[in-house]
Amino acid sequence: MTEVDNPEAAAPGPANRSPAPPLTERQRARRRRILHATARLACRGGFEAVQMREVAESSEVALGTLYRYFPSKVHLLVATMQDQLEQLHGTLRKSPPAGETAADRVAQTLMRAFGALQREPRLAEAMARALTFADRSVSPEVDQVSRRTTAIILDAMGGLDRPTADQLSAVRVIEHTWHSTLIAWLSGRASIAQVGVDIETACRLLDVTGAGEPRVTGAEERERAHGSGPVASG
Known about the structure:
Blueprint: H1 25-45, H2 52-59, H3 63-69, H4 73-94, H5 102-119, H6 121-133, H7 139-157, H8 165-186, H9 192-203, H10 205-208, H11 218-225
Helix pairs in contact: 1-2, 1-4, 1-6, 2-3, 4-6, 4-7, 5-7, 5-9, 6-8, 8-9
């Protein structure tokens, strides 16, 4: 049975969903159970092990209720990736990277993310396949994954409040590199060492945007403007 023929992989649902109303606390708890059950199943058997009926049974929700939250297992696995990234972001905020430059910190952060994926390769494979299969109907979930990844990178850069257009462009290239190296690693076409080299290379784009330059305080700017900076003794 192909992915298209499988009703559990492609359940009926509107192509363009309107924004959902805010969830109640009970609904949020139910959604968390669903995502945790999905992750457990994927950890055990990868993409094929995530079947909507089994997710519903494991999370103790009705199958119809599950479909109202997630129209297909692609929606479900992409949402699971967003949830995993959210957990990673929380960990990184408690223990931020310590590199000297923005490029160093972002590379270190993304390699820590790879370390987490290495520990659960079947889950990583399932989430990556879902992202690859995602069509326009999954755009809201994919957008959430992208926004969370961007937030993780910006935090590693130093928590820029107003990143420039060039910096945001560099971040997008870094995201694309991270995703493509993940696919290459999962398919056995790249080693972790090669992944590290490619990510570090992409992160050097941040140096070009000035993200790695030391921040200048207001007092220092005024001193420079008036030529009253410190004079070196000779």
